[in-house]
Amino acid sequence: MACGISSGISIDCAALKRVGGVNKKAWVFNIDDLFNYTTGADGCINQINFDAYAGLYEFDSRKQAHSGGYVPVIGGEGGNKFFQHDVQLKLFSDNCVDDQVIEDLLVSNVGIILETNNQEFKLFGGFNGMDQTGGSQSTGQAAASDIADTLIFQGEEQDLPKRILDTDYATTKAYIESLVI
Q1: Is the dihedral of CA 147, 68, 125, 181 positive or negative?
Q2: How many CB atoms lie within 10 A of CB 179?
Q3: 123: closest CA among 177, 161, 153, 83?
Q4: Distance (Å, rounded) from C-alpha 132 to C-alpha 106?
Q5: CA distance 121 to 119
Q6: Which of 48, 95, 98, 126 has an alpha carbon 20 to 30 Å from 72's alpha carbon atom?
């Protein structure tokens, strides 16, 4: 079987005016709590189905604090190819409960949803999950120092980060927020 493309990609003025960065919220879930996804004909995820009493956890931060992306991984001559998903969360823990959540994230296998500044939602690590691979926190030396808890997650997937879309932006956002537990 030959692998190949079946379509092209066009560009328009709207695509040229897209804005980088993500919004201040990230939604995180335990991969083990996921039942399945419903995907539309366009390839976007329309529905996220969790086991009973499971769902998304909301992580608030500052606007443009989080980031997400991917890197293609090529396994050498004749090797396999896949996509490495990367997410950085910048969180501001200020109590013992927040500290416990950060400690739990260290050993969790999670999927992460980020909202881009183009009103789209992207799912990172949605099938195999993501593990925390690094991070840092410092009290800083001066008043204006970055004192955020920076957590770095990485996962390996067959596909790019999946888009989540249910009709339009407002409907999708309401749907995602309805999954928060």
Answers
A1: positive
A2: 18
A3: 161
A4: 6
A5: 7
A6: 48
Query: pLDDT of the chain along its 181 residues, tens only?
Result: 678 998 899 999 988 999 999 999 999 999 999 999 999 999 999 999 999 999 999 999 998 899 999 999 998 887 899 999 999 999 999 999 999 999 999 999 999 999 999 999 999 999 999 999 999 988 888 898 888 899 999 999 999 999 999 999 999 999 999 999 9
Nearest one of 178, 126, 177 to 155, comparing CA atoms: 126
- pTM for the whole thing? 0.93
Query: Six-digit token pair at 97?
Result: 């409960």
Which residues share a beta bridge with 27? Answer: 58, 113
Dist CA 161 CA 166 (whole Å): 16
